[in-house]
Amino acid sequence: MQTLIDDLLAYSRTTETERKFEYTDLNKIVREIMAALKEELQEKKATVEFGHLCQVNVIPFQFRQLLQNLIANSLKFSKLELIPHIIIKSKEIKSDETKEETFLKPTDYCHISISDNGIGFDPEYKDKIFDLFQRLHDHQNYEGTGIGLTIVRKIIENHNGIITATGELGNGCTFDIFIPVEQ
């Protein structure tokens, strides 16, 4: 019950009206998250691979929450027989490379990709996994409330962005995030 209350409070913080955007180094945020998740990373002997990531105009505490939720999910839904490997990449996409029907506005975007080698999910649930209280895996083997990815989607909406998920049962998943470079 306490976990549910904590998750609902985290979700409510994403709907607050104060949205102070700052240019932030994604490398710094990822390093902070790795420090916060140090015990889980060591326990699972996980590796997080990331190169030079974009500087983005974001709400820092929200974006930290977003990335922490996605990395923590990669750890939670890892395979028992395989060391978790998480890859984070980013690149800037110029406005002339974007398809108008896909993106919310004609501007440059930062594309952030987070992939893992975990248990994945059935592709038919690629949109449903962002719904409130949606859980694709059983409660006995995987703890959680089903709010984490709903928080992620809400944070992306707060940043005028788009998030998609692709996965395959037994073959990991990838989350693709697109946020405008300028807010």
What are the key terms here?
183 residues, alpha+beta, Heat Shock Protein 90, five-stranded mixed beta sheet, globular
Layout of secondary structure:
Layout: H1 2-14, E1 22-25, H2 26-36, H3 38-44, E2 47-50, E3 55-58, H4 60-76, E4 85-93, E5 109-116, H5 148-158, E6 162-167, E7 173-180
Parallel strand pairs: 2-4
Antiparallel strand pairs: 1-3, 4-5, 5-7, 6-7
Largest sheet: 5 strands, mixed
Number of helices: 5
- As for the number of domains, it is 1
* Count of DSSP strands: 7
The SSE order reads HEHHEEHEEHEE
Proportion of residues in helical segments: 25-40%
Name the average pLDDT.
82
Range of strand content: 15-25%
Seen as an oligomer or otherwise, the chain set is single chain
Q: What's the CATH topology name? A: Heat Shock Protein 90
- Second CATH tier, the architecture: 2-Layer Sandwich
**CATH homologous superfamily placement:** Histidine kinase-like ATPase, C-terminal domain
The CATH class, by name, is: Alpha Beta
Strand order of the largest sheet: 2-4-5-7-6
- Give the CA-CA distance, first to last residue: 37 Å
Looking at the structure, what is the overall shape?
A: globular
Uncertain residue segments:
1-9, 133-142
Question: Rg from C-alpha positions?
Answer: 16 Å
Class derived from helix and strand content = alpha+beta
